[in-house]
Amino acid sequence: MRFRICRKEAKESAMWLRVLNRGDNREVIKTADALVQEATELKLIFTSIIKKLEHD
Hints:
It is elongated and about 50 Å long. The two termini are 15 Å apart. The longest helix has 30 residues, at 26-55. It has one domain (2-55). The chain has helices at 2-19, 26-55. Helices cover 86% and strands 0% of the residues. Helix 1 runs antiparallel to helix 2 (26-55). With 56 residues, the protein is mainly alpha-helical.
């Protein structure tokens, strides 16, 4: 159950980072893109854990 909450939070974090107004600041854009990528990777990890636990 906790992994589902973690996955949901990672998904929501990525969504808010995409919605965020980044302006024209390249450093902010670069940082936000990296954080979106990290949140997406975490979501995939949690999804994999959930699937593995469901099959056991």
